[in-house]
Amino acid sequence: MNYAIIFTTVSTKKEGYAIANELVQNKLAACVNIVPKVHSVYDWEDQIQNDEELLLLIKTTKEREKDIYHTIESLHSYDTPELITIPINRGSQPYLQWLENSVQKIDKE
Q: How many whole angstroms separate alpha carbon 70 and alpha carbon 55?
């Protein structure tokens, strides 16, 4: 099984917890870390923005990536939420086994 970490940012703690809880409760992700006070500098609509955000690190399987993207896009307040997937090439076997057991597999009928 392929494992991945998906990154997204949110503007409020409430939104971060709502997305994290939705992903874990629906077994799309094994764990979501919410990192507070990330300062983001970016160009949006031809203006440099400086914002405080929270970073979500979503631990999941590659198989659930599309479902996670869809869920985040449906819940997120941004027009264009950050959605970046990084593959997990290596990890401790007990942790990866826990991750795999925590994420619901897609039935392939």
A: 18
